[in-house]
Design a protein that fits this description.
By secondary structure, the protein is mostly helical. The protein contains 11 helices and no strands.
């Protein structure tokens, strides 16, 4: 595959490709994560170099293309997904400059513009699937913080002056992950019955924020959904790669 998504989510007769498609390579973060762990011992030097060169080229496209820049500057979970990909691909190839840039994006942009004072994600609550997208953005943002380990102040425990951070987001969502019937907002227009599934963000926040109840709940949740839409929006399937 060429290391770009110039033709992703194209619409016949309208566009040959759109920036929104960048979210569809989100699951490659676990490929990059795994490669960084097992690559040196399981791949030949040539294979390891070729793999890292592909991710290096793709990361460059993410950072410099019109579609990549548009997705980076999105106002909702699309920007969070861009940031997680950029962070993890940079981590794989040892690009500390990009990792520092993504950390600043998280602290200066994503948290202030996406997280509400109560720990909710207002832009996701305004969508037709508020429950699904709230969980999805929380999971991606918590994983982003996990990816940024070693850069700046610990991202998982970092808080804005008003207390907003991943711990606040987990505090907001926890009651509704435990009992979705308590969800006080509109139900998702579809697939609501298939949620929730095992939330990686709940595990990461439970460990970082010292909340054993989050981890206890995480253990009881479904790790293997069969609904295709839920799988598509299930960003992290192998959480032990991240801890």
């Amino acid at each position: 595959m060429n290391p770009n998504l110039e033709f992703s989510q194209g619409v016949h007769g309208v566009s040959t490709g759109r920036s929104y498609g960048i979210i569809d390579t989100l699951h490659l973060v676990e490929v990059g994560r795994a490669a960084g762990i097992v690559g040196p011992s399981l791949l030949s030097a040539e294979e390891d170099s070729a793999l890292k060169e592909w991710f290096r080229s793709y990361l460059q496209w993410l950072k410099s293309s019109d579609k990549g820049e548009k997705e980076r500057d999105a106002l909702n979970n699309h920007a969070t997904c861009w940031a997680l990909q950029a962070s993890e691909f940079a981590r794989l190839i040892g690009d500390n400059e990009t990792r520092n840039q993504v950390y600043r994006q998280y602290v200066d942009v994503l948290l202030p513009t996406q997280l509400g004072a109560d720990g909710s994600f207002p832009k996701e609550l305004a969508r037709t699937k508020p429950y699904s997208y709230s969980i999805f953005n929380f999971d991606v943002m918590a994983t982003l913080c996990q990816s940024l380990e070693g850069v700046g102040t610990d991202a998982l425990t970092f808080q804005l002056p008003d207390g907003r951070g991943i711990c606040k987001a987990a505090e907001f969502l926890y009651p509704y992950l435990r009992d979705k019937n308590a969800w006080p907002y509109p139900k998702d227009v579809e697939h609501f019955e298939a949620l929730p599934v095992r939330s990686p963000g709940l595990l990461f926040a439970g460990l970082a924020c010292d909340r054993q109840q989050y981890i206890t709940l995480w253990k009881t949740m479904n790790p293997d959904p069969t609904d295709r839409e839920i799988i598509r929006n299930y960003p992290i399937r192998q959480p032990l790669l991240w801890v």
